[in-house]
Amino acid sequence: MHWKAGRVTVRIPRKLALGSAHVRVRTHGGELSNPVPLTVEGRHPAPVLLRVKPAAAHRGAKVRILGAHLGNVRKVEFGHHRARILHRQARKLVVRVPRGHGVLQITVVVPGGPSAITTRDIFRYGR
Fold first, then answer.
1. 61 shares its domain with 107
2. CA distances to 27, 37, 40, 107 from 74, in Å
3. How many domains does the chain have?
4. Against a cut of 0.70, is the pTM above it?
5. Which structural domain range is residue 117 located in?
6. Does 117 lie in the same domain as 61?
7. Hey, is 48 helix, strand or coil?
8. 58 vs 24, 61, 96, CA distance in Å?
């Protein structure tokens, strides 16, 4: 934290959720300031999914996800089921297919937010 001429500069924790929050400053004497609004914006561009290889597989299979901005991925979901990330690079992820069935959307989440929903992130179980 840095304080100068009525201005406070702090480092925002990485795990702080994106969106609106209120911040209060505590003095050395223990007094709290009035709440001040703060908007936390993503520092990382949202991931872009271009291709899923293979686009169909059974639970436990390895799947490659090709795209952009994938290096800082926090989680990958097949529908609402979290996949185990085996390998990550800026343009490629390798994940293990989690439980599930049917046709699902794959979502990749980075600190800046989730991937957009497109027709390129459709996955089918069991083929």
1. yes
2. 35, 27, 18, 11
3. 2
4. no
5. 48-125
6. yes
7. strand
8. 50, 6, 10
